[in-house]
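Researcher: Checking consistency across runs. Here is Nitroreductase-like protein again:
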Amino acid sequence: MGSTQIAFKNPATATLLELVKSRRTYYGLKAESPISDDAIQSIIQDSVLHVPSSFNTQTSRIVLLLKEEHEKVWDIAIKVMEGLVEAGKVPKEMFENHTKPKLLSFRAAYGTVLFFVDYDSLAPIKEKFAIYADKFDPFALESNAMSQYLVWVALQSEGFGANLQHYSPLIDEEVRKTWDLPASWKMDAQLVFGAPTSEPGEKAFSPLEERFKVFGKSA
């Protein structure tokens, strides 16, 4: 991918890109934190406030669960999956040997960030800009994805390992009831984080020349 040393005007740019490059998926996590809960909360709040959204619709909603509250969400996931096993929708052997150990590994972490989109809040903007009405839901999801990525990178920068999960819609109803969340909040993802207990796997890249083009570059 090239080894030419690039000189940026702002040194923080190089730091930011190094953080992006170092972000990885960690599955081995334990319930320890290298920073205070206030510092974790600050990362989440900055994401809520400063990640952009189309037409400034601000549709992302985020819930931070720590310690015992974090454990609850994975207890919910285990209970839901057990119900699917009992109903014959998930093979018991698969659940016992693969799914349950994975869910328990998430439970063993320090916290979980739940990411939601409030699609109902888009009604006024859809009416005002009817020509774009079918675009606003995807735009909202894109904004939410930016929040997920920012929080992931920031938490890893502070010493956490993390992995992103998608257990919606299986757990949505119980999550809403447990934390009394508005029905209009639709969950998209769960970011599990904690102190790393193992190294991540190797990153694999498709050829850059198949994924990137540049035109009009100065020599």
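Researcher: Does this match what you'd expect to see?
Model: One thing to look at in this run: Residues 26-196 form a domain with the NADH Oxidase fold (CATH 3.40.109.10).
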